[in-house]
Design a protein that fits this description.
The chain contains 6 helices and no strands. With 164 residues, the protein is mainly α. It has one domain.
């Protein structure tokens, strides 16, 4: 069961780019809510739920999965991506205009996805340092920080591209 949860119910078992697949649940939820004009509070609550669920699952399940497969950060573990991707969107939820066009919704969602994945994959300083935390905490911490940095860059991008 822990392996199933850590893989985000099988998304981590996808043969190509499992972390990218793991990022999709918050992306899909955010884009649908944004497109249909959900209130910022609703978007925030959903993203916060992804963060909490992904974080708890990561900390509780990763040690068992890592021991089972013999890797400290198994590729199949993607609940950390769920949490990290949601952080990027949480940061901007209250700062988006309520009247975004479909094109603007796609732009914001896509840019947030791209930024998070780029930072998560390349792990620039200080993201890489977060991996030093023990067990599931290190697996989680780098993604949460990547989400924070992606959210900050996304916020700047939204201010420049969408509200300009």
């Amino acid at each position: 069961m822990k392996r199933l949860i850590a893989s985000c119910f099988g998304l981590g078992w996808m043969p190509i780019a499992p972390g990218t697949w793991g990022s999709l649940p918050p992306v899909v939820a955010f884009s649908i809510m944004l497109h249909f004009g959900a209130p910022a509070l609703a978007i925030t609550l959903v993203m916060a739920a992804f963060i909490v669920a992904g974080s708890v699952a990561c900390v509780l399940c990763v040690p068992a999965v890592a021991a089972l497969v013999g890797k400290g950060d198994p590729g199949e573990v993607v609940v950390d991506e769920v949490a990290g991707q949601a952080v990027a969107y949480l940061i901007i939820a209250f700062l988006l205009p309520s009247d975004l066009s479909l094109k603007q919704c796609c732009l914001v969602t896509g840019l947030g996805f791209f930024l998070f994945r780029a930072l998560d994959i390349t792990k620039p300083w200080p993201i890489k340092k977060m991996e030093a935390f023990p067990e599931g905490w290190g697996v989680l911490a780098d993604d949460l920080l990547a989400g924070v940095l992606a959210g900050i860059i996304l916020l700047i991008g939204v201010k420049l591209l969408v509200t300009a």
